[in-house]
Every structure is written in C-alpha cells, then in structure tokens.
Amino acid sequence: MSTFPGSPDASGVSPDPDTSGASSGASGTSSGASGADAAAEAPNLDFAGTTPYEDYVQADVLTHLQHLRSDDPGEMVFLVTTQVMELWFTVIVHEWETASRALREDRVPVAMDALKRSVRELEALNHSWHPLAQLTPAQFNSYRGSLGEGSGFQSAMYRRMEFLLGEKSASMLVPHRGAPRVHAELEKALHEPSLYDEVLGLLARRGLPVPAAVLNRDLAGRYEPSPEVEAVWAGIYADPDQNGELVRLGEALSDVAELVWRWRNDHLVATRRAMGAKTGTGGSAGVAWLEKRAQKNVFPELWTARSHV
C-alpha cells in the first residue's frame, strides 16, 4: 500500500516536487533526466474540487459527527469509540447477510469467505473496547449525565446483528418506532431467516435429518436449541473425512460465536469497571442484564454437539 500523498517516504523525508535533480558536476542531460524523474514521481496535488480521497471516504463528514454534550475531555473518546463500533456493526451485518444469501443459494465457498472476513472484523470490533476498558466511575460520571437515557441496547445496527444470530425479540423494535426507516428495516430482519436458519436449511438440503419443526419455526422468535440438530452436528463432526466442507462451515460459525461471546464479556467487564452495579442509562439492570447476556452462546448445538463426538 502506498503512502498518502505528501507523506514521508521510507527514509522519512517528504517528497518535494520542486527539488532539482542536478548535482555538482552532472551533465545537463543527467540533470534534465533527474528533474523529469522527480516530476513523474511527484503526487498530484491540484484538484478542481475536493480530493478523490475525500469524495470516496467522506472523511470531512465522519470527523464532524462528534457533537459533544459536556465539557469533559474524556467524552470525545467515548463518543468516537461508540461511533467506530457502529461502523463495525454495519460491516459485520453486511458480511452475515452476504453469507446468508450465499447459503440459501448453496454457494458455501462464498459464504465461508464472508464468514472469515467477519471473524477479522469481529476481532477489530472487540479491540474497540480497549480505549474504554479502564474507565473509572469518576471518569464516566464526568459525562454520563449528558447521555440521558441513551444506551447501547438501543443501537439498531447491533440489533440487526443479534437478529442475524437468531437472538430475536419483537419488543426490541419498540425503541425505534419514531424512526420509520430504521423500524421498517428491523421489522424486515425480524421476519427473515437468521444466518443459522440458512445453515440449517443447507444441512436439510444435504439430506441431513434437521426436524421440520425447526425448519418451519416462527422466524420472528428466538432460536431455541434442538436435540435433533445437536445430533446432526455430532454426526457431521464424527466423520470429518466425509463431511469436510460442513465441518469447516461449523468451525467458521464457531469462530463467530466465540467472538460474539468475547464481545459480550468485554462489554460486561468495561461496564462493571465504569459503573459497578448501578442501573444502566437506558433503564436496564446494567451489569446484571449484561451478565445474563454473556452466559448465552449463539449457534448453541455447535457447542453441545462436541460432547457427543
């Protein structure tokens, strides 16, 4: 990857388009060639409007979305970290929706590519906790009141992530009634198959005995573990030579599930350090609510089946 225009080169010296290539004792031909080389290597600095970089990235928009509500200098990192998390949620939803479509069309390699990308993205998302990981109660209290009733569980994009994981609840649409577009997107996601539903559909099309009650369940409800699905996964893992592709799919899903579990636990620990057992800003039970969430595994049979292999 090249450096940004105007950035130092490997030697630490910024390129200068006006630097002469002539040196003491050099011929005119040599000097002219050096000057031409320097001009050819110089970055284009003259644009009629905004830079192509700005047109693509819209950095000016991104860096002016921080509307602080307090005078505390620590609020900036809290807000930017939260906004960065929202961007990662958006990327991960994109990957899981890509994987879901591919599974529906029996394109397992395409789904695997999307899942593998999402694993790296989940790792980056989890690292987003680091700037807030040692926030003390006094530091958080300095701007916590400015948040009002704002809380992470009100994040619409995170809710779409949860829905794709099979963690569905119609009540989670209620906070978004005042935002028609967001509400409509969430309602659509609520009634669509989750990523795991698409996986189970694929297994059924491969001739594996996934129960009809699981395949035809109410998609708007939370996925509940099935002993029959557990047995299917146990059979897959018991014969990796015969079921290599499905084992690899199961492991990719397990990577996702593990990182989701780590995300929830990192959230729990950061919250416990910052506010102890106090009620959450959104009125939830705070740490107690997060503890309950952290105990749940997504794609549950992928974990329990291992005891039977």
TrEMBL record:
<dbReference type="GO" id="GO:0020037">
    <property type="term" value="F:heme binding"/>
</dbReference>
<comment type="similarity">
    <text>Belongs to the tryptophan 2,3-dioxygenase family.</text>
</comment>
<keyword id="KW-0223">Dioxygenase</keyword>
<comment type="pathway">
    <text>Amino-acid degradation; L-tryptophan degradation via kynurenine pathway; L-kynurenine from L-tryptophan: step 1/2.</text>
</comment>
<dbReference type="GO" id="GO:0046872">
    <property type="term" value="F:metal ion binding"/>
</dbReference>
<keyword id="KW-0560">Oxidoreductase</keyword>
<dbReference type="InterPro" id="IPR037217">
    <property type="entry name" value="Trp/Indoleamine_2_3_dOase-like"/>
</dbReference>
<keyword id="KW-0823">Tryptophan catabolism</keyword>
<feature type="binding site">
    <location>
        <position position="281"/>
    </location>
    <ligand>
        <name>substrate</name>
    </ligand>
</feature>
<feature type="binding site" description="axial binding residue">
    <location>
        <position position="267"/>
    </location>
    <ligand>
        <name>heme</name>
    </ligand>
</feature>
<dbReference type="GO" id="GO:0019442">
    <property type="term" value="P:L-tryptophan catabolic process to acetyl-CoA"/>
</dbReference>
<keyword id="KW-0349">Heme</keyword>
<feature type="region of interest" description="Disordered">
    <location>
        <begin position="1"/>
        <end position="38"/>
    </location>
</feature>
<dbReference type="GO" id="GO:0019441">
    <property type="term" value="P:L-tryptophan catabolic process to kynurenine"/>
</dbReference>
<dbReference type="Pfam" id="PF03301">
    <property type="entry name" value="Trp_dioxygenase"/>
</dbReference>
<feature type="compositionally biased region" description="Low complexity">
    <location>
        <begin position="18"/>
        <end position="38"/>
    </location>
</feature>
<keyword id="KW-0479">Metal-binding</keyword>
<dbReference type="InterPro" id="IPR004981">
    <property type="entry name" value="Trp_2_3_dOase"/>
</dbReference>
<feature type="binding site">
    <location>
        <position position="144"/>
    </location>
    <ligand>
        <name>substrate</name>
    </ligand>
</feature>
<keyword id="KW-0408">Iron</keyword>
<protein>
    <recommendedName>
        <fullName>Tryptophan 2,3-dioxygenase</fullName>
        <ecNumber>1.13.11.11</ecNumber>
    </recommendedName>
</protein>
<comment type="function">
    <text>Heme-dependent dioxygenase that catalyzes the oxidative cleavage of the L-tryptophan (L-Trp) pyrrole ring and converts L-tryptophan to N-formyl-L-kynurenine. Catalyzes the oxidative cleavage of the indole moiety.</text>
</comment>
<dbReference type="GO" id="GO:0004833">
    <property type="term" value="F:L-tryptophan 2,3-dioxygenase activity"/>
</dbReference>
<comment type="subunit">
    <text>Homotetramer.</text>
</comment>
